[in-house]
Amino acid sequence: MTKLAKRLYEHLKRTALLPRGTHVLVACSGGPDSLALLLLLVELAPMLHLDVSAAHYDHGLRGAASQADAAFVAAFCAVRGIPCRMGRAPAGSIAAADASVETAARAQRYAFLEAVRQAAGADVVCTAHHADDQAETVLMHLLRGTGLDGLAGIPSRDDARHLVRPLLPLRKAELVAYCAQRGVTPRHDATNDVPDGLRNRVRLEL
Question: How far apart are CA 136 and CA 159, in angstroms?
């Protein structure tokens, strides 16, 4: 067992986030965070008796890069025998939504993940939010003004939406290093490098 998998195993045992026998559906974008989550849960599956599958949603917002991400995730899972469901946003649906692109994309992605969870008979959807995301979220809440709920940040589970976030104790750099250790080269979303939204400005500049 790798050191990071051992740390995650101890966290999951302590918190009972993923009880033995859980069928987990991992939301996988192809980036380092979600690839690390998928690989870690596959590594821990024999010990926790997990049934691990994956899902990828192509928002169709980055042209050929989006398609390449989808193809990468499909191939990554196929090589490792991980069941994977693929989805794609209808052309123009996100841009035409009565909301920001980020909000509309998130809503479509979570609706897809919940539909796949039900179809696959999975117990929960696992997302790859980590400690750096948590810090960014708390800072964003402080900048906007918040009460105690906002200071609590991202919860480790959201029972109403069947979501679990196992990686909150782990740092981004650890996940990147784990991918490298496993010989995996994740996809890179260049939109994360542009400080055009509050989260990206907090991440890149604050």
Answer: 23
Q: Which of 74, 2, 75 is nearest to 36 (CA)?
A: 2
- The residue written with tokens 């035409």 in the block is 96
Prediction pTM value: 0.88
Rounded to an integer, the average pLDDT of 148-175 is 89
- The pLDDT confidence band at residue 61, using thresholds 50, 70 and 90, is confident
Residue 47, class by beta-carbon neighbours within 10 Å (0-12 exposed, 13-18 middle, 19+ buried)? middle
Exposure string for 68-94, b = 16+ CB within 10 A, e = fewer = ebbebbbebbeeeebebbbbebeeeeb
Which domains does the chain carry? Answer: 3-205 (3.40.50.620)
How many residues does the structure list for the chain?
A: 206
pLDDT, tens digit (0-9, with 9 covering 90-100), for 28-43? 999 999 999 999 999 9
CB neighbours (10 Å) of residue 184? 14
Interatomic CA distance for residues 105 and 101, integer angstroms: 6
